[in-house]
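ARCHIVE CARD
CATEGORY: sequence design from structure
SOURCE FIELD: tokenized fold
FIELD CONTENT:
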């Protein structure tokens, strides 16, 4: 009965255009980059000693789909025709083997381990050991690859985030376009060619974001096209003589592999906000497969304490909050909005990243990811406030002019209490003229101590307060006081006495 219920639920989901599942609880935790090992296999369709290594690496590729990137470079080594040989493959082989004889199979793991041919099971065990050892190395970089196909043009955008400082120099970002599952039976009997290198794009200096475009040949199957992006040092760390040739070690620090079945595009990968602000990122997700495809979606967060992030997916006229699975028909686009909310107590320079990942439920190689970074802007320059003049009912204060390009306003705050915090109740004046540097605060009480602060806001609603100063209104001058009519009375008496005395003594 329980099994029947599960089948019915799955059937109901498949009938809808979008399948919604609650996001995994783990998406709210911080995450680090996943280590991806690069295996570069130099082979030929007519190479009989290559069969064991070919089958072994193909099995491992299917088992380590998210942790192993495989590339098969077809090179000139036999008289049998091999339609997949290109100059780029031979040049890459020469990059590793600069002297002495060469032969296939020739396998390199992360540019520092070389292996040859042998029995399938022996090769499988040996390769697996190397892969596990390399996976145990902490990744130096997180590489997120977004890819798209427009007509016969492919586009790849690699966003590279440093996890820890590398121990080698002369780092390059490298791009290799491959085609998987090519049906071609060569002289060695292998019928399906895996991860065939079709084009090696020009490398670029290490940067946080690198974009490459390339032409797609008509004979390539777009549904099986993919790209491997990796960071490698072009410096030779070691030279090792093996089997009559000299192997030059070029360390690969991280790799990423995906097929072109789904694209993620955005007009911005980073945004600056004020403390407590929200960064909004708009992303277009497109299904480039030839059939309806179900995709897993999840958000990995590496955010400071108090921050959070969520996303909304819209297809057609319907929008869904934090879905973990959606379905898109061929060439259908979904609109994804990711909101990163910073905490109100964030400080200038605080930053966090979120990583949006999507992958086909049927083919884990059909995937894409994108890194989005949010940074807290520095607040306005702190003003300096001084006292200028006072009267019985007013105090004039002045301050240093703010010269920030994103100035918004000055606010004058006053209180009769020392150590006050500016608030609506303490606001006495708002000034939007950036050139203003003084103001007379009126309507005050005489002979009273007042405390002042200047608050400056920028256009991101961040503010900076001046230090606090105090000033006292002056006291009104005292008026002379007496008994009403007393002075006049005394004058009359004095005049009367003078008259009497004069009349008495003057005869």
């Amino acid at each position: 009965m329980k099994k029947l219920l599960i089948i019915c639920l799955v059937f109901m989901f498949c009938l809808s255009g979008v399948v919604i599942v609650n996001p995994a609880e783990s998406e709210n935790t911080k995450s680090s980059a996943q280590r991806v090992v690069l295996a570069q296999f130099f082979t030929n369709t007519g190479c009989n000693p290559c069969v064991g290594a070919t089958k072994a690496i193909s099995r491992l590729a299917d088992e380590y789909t998210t942790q192993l990137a495989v590339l098969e470079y077809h090179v000139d080594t036999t008289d049998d025709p091999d339609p997949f040989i290109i100059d780029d493959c031979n040049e890459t082989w020469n990059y590793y083997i600069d002297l002495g004889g060469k032969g296939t199979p020739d396998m390199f793991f992360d540019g520092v381990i070389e292996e040859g041919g042998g029995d399938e099971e022996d090769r499988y065990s040996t390769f697996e050991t190397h892969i596990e050892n390399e996976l145990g190395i902490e990744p130096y970089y997180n590489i997120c690859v977004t890819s798209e196909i427009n007509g016969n043009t492919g586009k790849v955008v690699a966003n590279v985030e440093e996890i820890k400082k590398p121990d080698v120099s002369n780092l390059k970002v490298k791009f290799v376009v491959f085609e998987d599952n090519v049906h071609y039976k060569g002289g060695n009997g292998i019928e399906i060619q895996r991860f065939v290198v079709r084009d090696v794009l020009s490398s670029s200096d290490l940067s946080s974001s690198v974009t490459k475009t390339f032409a797609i040949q008509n004979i390539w199957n777009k549904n099986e096209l993919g790209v491997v992006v990796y960071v490698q040092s072009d410096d030779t760390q070691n030279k090792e003589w093996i089997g009559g040739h000299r192997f030059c070690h070029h360390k690969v620090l991280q790799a990423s592999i995906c097929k072109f079945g789904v694209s993620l595009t955005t007009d911005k990968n980073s945004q600056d906000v004020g403390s407590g602000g929200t960064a909004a990122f708009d992303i277009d997700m497109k299904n480039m497969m030839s059939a309806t495809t179900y995709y897993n979606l999840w958000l990995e967060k590496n955010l400071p304490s108090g921050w959070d992030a969520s996303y909304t997916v819209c297809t057609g006229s319907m929008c869904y909050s934090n879905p973990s699975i959606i379905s898109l028909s061929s060439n259908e686009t979904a609109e994804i909005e990711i909101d990163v909310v910073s905490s109100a107590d964030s400080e200038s320079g605080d930053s966090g990243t979120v990583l949006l990942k999507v992958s086909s439920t049927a083919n884990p190689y059909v995937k894409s990811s994108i890194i989005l970074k949010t940074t807290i802007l520095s607040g306005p320059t702190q003003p300096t406030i001084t006292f200028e003049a006072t009267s019985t009912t007013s105090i004039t204060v002045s301050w240093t002019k703010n010269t920030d390009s994103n100035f918004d306003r000055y606010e004058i705050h006053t209180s009769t209490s020392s150590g006050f915090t500016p608030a609506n109740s303490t606001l006495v004046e708002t000034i939007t003229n950036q050139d203003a540097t003084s103001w007379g605060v009126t309507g005050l009480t005489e002979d009273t101590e007042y405390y002042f602060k200047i608050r400056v806001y920028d256009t991101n609603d961040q503010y900076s307060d001046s230090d606090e100063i105090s000033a006292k209104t002056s006291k009104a001058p005292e008026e002379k006081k007496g008994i009403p009519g007393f002075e006049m009375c005394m004058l009359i008496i004095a005049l009367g006495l003078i008259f009497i005395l004069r009349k008495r003594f003057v005869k």
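CARD ANNOTATION: The radius of gyration is 38 Å. The chain has a mean pLDDT of 89.
SHELF: design records, drawer C
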